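Protocol step 6 of 9: fold each sequence in the batch and record its structure tokens directly after the sequence line. For illustration, a two-sequence batch is reproduced in full.

Sequence one:
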Amino acid sequence: MIGALNPGRVPSQRILRHAEKYPIYGIIHFSMNTFTDKEWGYGDEDPALFNPTDFDAEQIVLACKAGGLTGLVLVCKHHDGFCLWPTKTTKHNISASPFRNGKGDVVKEFADACRKHGMGIGFYISPWDRNNASYGTPAYLEIYREQMREIYSNYGPAFEVWFDGANGGDGFYGGTRETRKIDHTVYYDWANTWKIVREMQPQACIFSDVGPEVRWPGNEKGFAEDECYGSITLLPMEAGKKAAPGFMDYSMSAKGMPDGEFFIPPECDVPLRPGWFYHEAEEGRQKSLEELCNIYLHSVGCGGFMNLGISPNRRGRLSDGDVSRLAEFGQALKKYNGMPIAQSEVAQIRPGENLRLHLDDTQNISTLELREELANVGEQVLRYHIDALQDDAWKTLLTGNAIGLRRLKEWKEPLVCQELRVVLDETRGDNPARISLTLR
């Protein structure tokens, strides 16, 4: 299932492009739950409830862009089955609502606003559908795939398509009001379902619990482990079966494996507020700026991606507190991505060798960034340490294992030194590694 879509330990150009253009993005939850004050709708909600009074996709997109996000994944359909576009596959969609007098299309407005302002657009269509009478049967799989085709063919190129493991449970299901279970490993026929993505959205990375290109770290706190590897071997919940969305042993998902079979870096998702959807009771409970920066360092800064949950309110806009916090975060990110104090070229070095940067010892260094060039080779670094030359003596500042796509280290007290060196202690098979160092 995964092998046909992922080349193995060596990342595809698609993944490398994703890392360069979209290290941090958002996922937009704005649908029926916004108006019912729920996180997971049951599927029996009246479409007439969806009626934002002042929907403004541009306001949302611009606030996210000011927050440093470079793309947005839109939840086109959540588990309640309500579709934010005028689909032909179900009557439970936006055309049955009073929004824009039944002529609205939230997916189109978001996609247009993203492209107008230079943001990537991605799509999530929930595999689980608590409204659809056919869910759990082969007929629903065809309905679901047709929903994918509608989105992928009508709303332009996507930078990412998103899948999750919330599949099967109680629901409305056309009025039966029952619990339906599915076999996570075979029901969705993921190999052929994801083939639709490849054919219709060839540039998009596929995210799910198991990738095949971007993986879930097993938590919704936004954290990968400090020494996280992009490489991983996918572990199923039961021996003798294959891992699949919703059927994964997550014990290594936040850490990865230095000898992992596939390069599938973690996408660390976390909501800006306590919940993924808007709840009036959560006004003023946005994550603090300090929390957001710490999440960034433990996602992007640990060789992964940061996906921040954004929840427009019932008017169809971002609340003032969300806009303000995003603006603060966007300014704070310049600390990690601004003009370098010093920067090396990419150097190929072997274990025992080092990469050096000479410095003006009056400069204050607050952050350090390491990158490993992975094209054609994959992750090689297994152990390294970093020394600073201070008062003509070398002092070890830190030690580490993984570098991968990106590694960010921050000093609470600014560092001043004459020279900095990165020493490789161990690599896979004593192979050389290509690394670079940036100081800010």
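Sequence two, same batch, same settings:
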Amino acid sequence: MSRILLFNKPFGVICQFSRDGIHPTLADYIPLPEFYPAGRLDTDSEGLLVLTDDGQIQHRITDPSHKLAKTYWVQVEGVPDDSALAHLRNGVKLSDFTTRPAGVDLIDEPPSLWVRNPPVRERKTVPTSWLALTIREGKNRQVRRMTAAAGYPTLRLIRYRIGDWTLDNLQPGVWRKA
């Protein structure tokens, strides 16, 4: 029988079990070597990581042809206007591809948000805002590249949802069975 784990990956952790000698790894948090991440998050991103011991499930989660929705909470520099939000919703032309249309809404700072270590840099003269951004692909640093192309660089990126799985009630560095 297939098993699935949900893990809230902290900032600075790499999405692999083998150690690189520089960063903490999944092995520092999950003592189950038979599990593998279904996808990845960059070292400077946080949030939901799904792990499984079933290669078919891993493929279904990561293969873009399955179009599994992934929702991110994105703190950006500035306050995006309607034009910038429309740009994100319609697909963003990046240097190597054009993204599929995304779901995007301005949101309040998520109420259950934990403090990040190290903290996000703050500039007294530049406001920040939060977006809930949903994509159905997952190219390298895609969300960060999308918000930058729209004129609002990402300061903090947290994956909140993958398909039906969410971060709800899962603190950073903690995992649970799905």
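Proceed to step 7 once all outputs are recorded. Observation for sequence two: The mean pLDDT is 94.
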